[in-house]
Write a structure and sequence with these properties.
With 205 residues, the chain is an all-alpha fold. The protein is 73% helix and 0% strand. Pfam families: TetR_C_25, TetR_N.
């Protein structure tokens, strides 16, 4: 069945997204959403059938929104920005700084289930396309295992995106801001340089 598309149905969905994304949002009820959306619980049930139906609609909306944004990112615009712009920063720019979607992503990915796994597959696929495009453009060097590289980079960007608030508090700068990204990237580079494999006995003999 196609999701409801009336103005009130979409307001219910967007209100549910904002409420569920909040701390403690897992306990959100039909009555909570109806009150915040200024509709009756009966109207919510008429559109979505149950609280599970509301969650399914929100999951589908978040997945479609993120997938569409990621598709836009695999372009010359992202490549022209160079390796200093992360997929997370570019995605946040398209979602909007006040979007509840990053917080909702955390819930989807941590809670798991079919929706969370499907979303990660979409994110990984977009990350893989971006990495491949950057290699073709000469922004990145070839990887011995492109799949592993895409998984690592996608996971890193997701961590920064969904943990942005506590990272900002601990770091003293937003990791997705220019200043914070510079601090973050410099430290990562230092860490990776310090993790060079030790010389073998054959190399030292």
């Amino acid at each position: 069945m196609a999701p409801p598309t009336t103005v009130r149905a979409l307001r219910i969905r967007d209100t549910a997204l904002a409420l569920i994304a909040r701390p403690g949002g897992a306990a959100t009820t039909v009555r909570d959403i109806a009150a915040a959306a200024e509709v009756s619980p009966a109207l919510l049930i008429r559109h979505y059938g149950s609280m599970d139906g509301v969650r399914d609609a929100v999951n589908a909306h978040v997945t479609a929104t993120v997938t569409a944004a990621l598709s836009e990112l695999v372009s010359d615009d992202l490549l022209d920005a160079g390796a200093q712009d992360s997929l997370a920063a570019a995605l946040l720019d398209r979602l909007g700084a006040d979007s509840p979607i990053p917080r909702y992503l955390l819930r989807m990915l941590v809670d798991g289930g079919d929706s969370g796994r499907a979303l990660f597959r979409e994110l990984y696929a977009a990350g893989r396309r971006t990495v491949d495009a950057m290699v073709r453009a000469g922004v990145l060097t070839d990887a011995s295992d492109p799949r592993a590289r895409a998984v690592v980079l996608t996971t890193h960007d997701l961590a920064v995106l969904i943990l942005r608030e506590p990272i900002t508090e601990a770091l003293g700068a937003d990791p997705l801001s220019p200043a914070g990204a510079t601090t973050w990237g410099t430290e990562l580079a230092d860490i990776y340089r310090g993790l060079q494999p030790p010389e073998t006995s054959e190399e030292t003999s």
